[in-house]
Amino acid sequence: MNGCYINGIANISAQKTADPNSFLGDVIAHEELIFRSHEFNYKDYIKPSAMRRMSKSVKMGVATSKMALSAAELEMPDAIITGTGMGCRQDSEIFLEKILYNDEQFLTPTLFIQSTHNTVGGQIALGLGCKAYNVTYVQASVSFETSVIDAQLMLSESPDKNILVGGIDEIAKNSTLLHTLDGHIKSEKLPILDLLDSKTSGTVCSEGATFVVLGGEKTKNSVAKIVDVETKNSATPEEIKVEIQRFMRRNEITIDDIDAVVLGNNGNVEYNHYYKNVQDSLFSNTEQLCYKHLIGEYHTASAFGFYIASKVFQFGNVPSVLKVNDIRAKTYKNILLYNQYRAKNHSIALLQQC
């Protein structure tokens, strides 16, 4: 596989991550089990007349895409690839409610049009006037990684292209209620910063968006190189351990070459053993980082791991709020990412410093 460089990256989450010049310097300690992304001035990126018709995911997606393009000093991408687990859930729910309340009559198509999963990608393209390749992947908790793999394949054929890749998900009232009823979300409140120490099932829920500009050639704006990304639908903890070892051999690196590992632990005691197994064996002598006690869980939350790795390379240090062990790397050249959700949709990624 040819080079795949992150030439620009932007993030909106439940923390103050929209500022490109800071890295988790002012942490918000959420108390709710379901919490929204941190609000900032969307008017800097979206016209107010257009914004009032946008759902939360569209606003987050359009804003972060523009921020990522600005960081890469790029005006027009050669492709737009988005990943989402549930799409524009808010508009979907409103449309379904109107079907019920209006007895399937007098329905306007606007909410239905805006509720599709590819709405964000479409709105970004309309705003930019981009008529290039535009596709959305809906692959649950590996939606973002699948989008990155598609971009890698495109860059292997055309390394001169610049591809806008993003992952977006939003909170919606009824669907989060269903997740609470089926036990995916915890039933008792807790300080979210203590989430990783939780001894109960379920997790906390939030929303966010991450966009990156990927290119086949290194530029002065490059912050990281995506060496490889792999997804696996299902596996046991031991199979994942073997898969990570195979992944590293394929990329000609060893455990000693990994300076830090970024894990998607979300405080669900039923599935913590997937992370615990590699923490206590493969990465027992490696700096370990977690992030879902800061931003919550959602289908494309794993994209925040790419944001963390990029920021670590950029700033050369790790905020203490991310650390889950006492080991500190001397330098940061190779960072491995691993995420899974309820024992399904495992993803492994390797990022290198440019």
Structure, explained:
- The protein has helices spanning 48-51, 56-71, 89-101, 110-114, 119-128, 143-157, 173-181, 237-250, 272-279, 292-295, 303-315; strands at residues 5-12, 79-83, 133-137, 162-169, 208-215, 224-234, 260-263, 287-290, 334-341, 344-352.
- With 354 residues, it is α/β, with parallel strands linked by helices.
- α2 crosses α5 and α8 (237-250) crosses α9.
Label this structure with key terms.
single chain, 354 residues, alpha/beta, ten-stranded mixed beta sheet, 10 strands, globular
The gist of it:
The protein has 354 residues and is α/β, with parallel strands linked by helices. It has helices at residues 48-51, 56-71, 89-101, 110-114, 119-128, 143-157, 173-181, 237-250, 272-279, 292-295, 303-315, and strands at 5-12, 79-83, 133-137, 162-169, 208-215, 224-234, 260-263, 287-290, 334-341, 344-352.
Distance between the termini: 16 Å
Biggest sheet record: 10 strands, mixed
Question: Per DSSP, what share of the residues sits in E-state strands of 2 or more residues?
Answer: 15-25%
Structural class: alpha/beta
**Strand-and-helix sequence, N→C?**
EHHEHHHEHEHEEHEHEHHEE
What's the number of helices?
11
Shape: globular
Give the integer mean of the pLDDT values: 94
- Low-confidence residue ranges: none
Strand order of the largest sheet: 3-2-4-5-1-6-10-9-7-8
Radius of gyration: 19 Å
Quick one: how many beta strands? Answer: 10
Estimate the helix proportion, in percent: 25-40%
